[in-house]
Specification:
Layout lengths: L8 E7 L1 H8 L4 H12 L2 H5 L3 E5 L2 H8 L21 E5 L3 E6 L4 H10 L2 H9 L3 H4 L5 H23 L3 E7 L1
Antiparallel strand pairs: 1-2, 1-5, 3-4, 4-5
Helix pairs in contact: 1-2, 4-6, 5-8, 6-8
Amino acid sequence: MSGERVLGRGAYIVLTREDAKEIFSQEGDTAVRAVAERLRNSPKHRESDLLLECGTSWDPIHRALTDGTLNRDVEDFPLDHCVLGGRRLHIGKEFEAVLIRPDIVPHVAAGMHDLKRAEFTERYMALDPVAYGKQPTESEGDETWAMLKLIRQLFEDAGNEHAAVLFTVAR
């Protein structure tokens, strides 16, 4: 999975303690997916800013923050945990759920906070068009940076609440 273009709509969900207990009590991929999708569609999460829909921008963000691929096993802490590098709760062709533990969330937020726009733009523009599936553009780089700032804020807020973050992608 390290080189192909994988499309899917991503979302970040800040987990309350009750949410975390519920998702950890599930057995099997089907049950985990059902809870994750319910949380993703929950009016409570939407209205309380516990949900951030990121569309397909998770793909270039993960690539730019790691080794330029969608490799989940890149060890570049803490930035690798921004998207695909956390604890895998469900990985399938149509759905993924990755947990970033509450003790890790502040480190990820700090790593994103330390990342300057110029460095991110350089990393983004250096993505291999063959591996990425298209030529990186300045306008998409600007949109991706804007989304990264929203993700950073979500991680900072979750860190302040000692909350875990669940990243999901539905294809």
